[in-house]
Write a structure and sequence with these properties.
Keywords: Membrane, Transmembrane, Transmembrane helix. The chain is elongated and about 60 Å long. The protein contains 7 helices and no strands. α4 packs antiparallel against α6, α5 crosses α7 and α6 packs antiparallel against α7. The protein is an all-alpha fold and 159 residues long.
Length: 159
């Protein structure tokens, strides 16, 4: 018997020219890793948002909405003029009411503009929460603008 014929099963598997034998088993997950990451990322390349990104303007619109949403004066004025027969005594009182309504309406307009800019700047790489936040602040800011305009029209007719 010659020694070349005495081979072990491990030697036979190593000398086989199959693709599984050519590539080590631990390289297979690394070859599929980019495809798995692309599937999880939905084809988006992760980029860091900049200072003038959609995410930044979405957060700015939320900060602009906060004073109007937490303040009670707009709702108080609307309830006062819409559901009661209160009249304004002087022009000075009307100016005070107009200043409040202008502040709330102005914040609402700035909120809508900033959130709309965020939606306009959004791309495929924009995070979904920024789009949702921008959409919600456009709706809420628009509600505050409409409420301020309606309250102003009712208050101006009560002189």
């Amino acid at each position: 018997m010659s020694t070349s014929e005495n081979t072990t099963p491990a030697d036979d598997a190593a000398s086989d020219d199959t693709p599984a034998a050519a590539a080590p088993a631990d390289d297979a997950p690394e070859a599929n890793a980019p495809a798995a990451d692309a599937f999880l990322d939905a084809g988006r390349a992760a980029t860091a948002p900049g200072v003038l990104s959609a995410e930044t303007f979405a957060l700015a619109s939320l900060l602009l909405l906060a004073p109007a949403a937490t303040g009670q004066r707009l709702f108080e004025l609307f309830g006062r003029f819409a559901f009661t027969d209160v009249t304004l005594e002087t022009e000075g009182h009307l100016a005070s009411v107009n200043a409040d309504l202008l502040a709330y309406g102005g914040l609402g307009v700035l909120t809508v503009l900033t959130a709309s800019l965020s939606l306009f700047l959004g791309r495929a790489t924009t995070r979904p929460w920024a789009r949702w936040l921008s959409s919600a602040t456009v709706l809420a800011g628009g509600l505050f603008v409409v409420l301020a305009i309606v309250t102003y029209v009712i208050a101006a007719g009560r002189i």
